[in-house]
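Example record

One chain of 188 residues, shown exactly as stored in the release files.
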Amino acid sequence: MDQNEVAIAFEIVLEEIENAIAALNQQGAQAFQSGKYDIAKDLMEKGSQMSAFRAKVKDLQQEWLNIFAFVSPRTERRGRKVAERLKQGLRTPEDAFRVPILESLVELGGSASVTDVLDKLEARMRNQLNAYDRSPLPSDPTQTRWRKTAQWARHAMVKEGLLSPDSPRRVWEITQAGRRWLEATQKT
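Predicted structure tokens for this chain:
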């Protein structure tokens, strides 16, 4: 297994962790709505543990990338080119969604429904999204991978204060900190 295969493996592991967290979130919301508060609390704790685990895996992924950043990838292995393998299995990283999400929200007046934001985001990122991004999730064939990645990017931005944590359900809203961060990013 070469360093590129390890990078792909990290992406797959992170995607599975994201799917597990999404399932926990859904189960927790259903338990809460049903008044099963003990179950909802347990699921919330599991979700927190899973999120912490996800952060550790992302740190390991970054450490791996830093270690092998200076190593040039081999161009041939078992008759296939590395570039051919990288096209499959790698999704556009969450960080690539940050600026486009914030720009889309600014264009939409600061807040908008998830559907409106994702529609604008799709148009904005049309040239960045690859075939893997556009493929359906195995756990939910009605949802494409890039939409789930965008939702995880949104989750991270809420934690960082760039998006509002208390906007109405299914509405994304940029914060003042998000506007300042976007302005600073656009100036550089």
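Notes: The chain has two domains: 3-87, 95-187.
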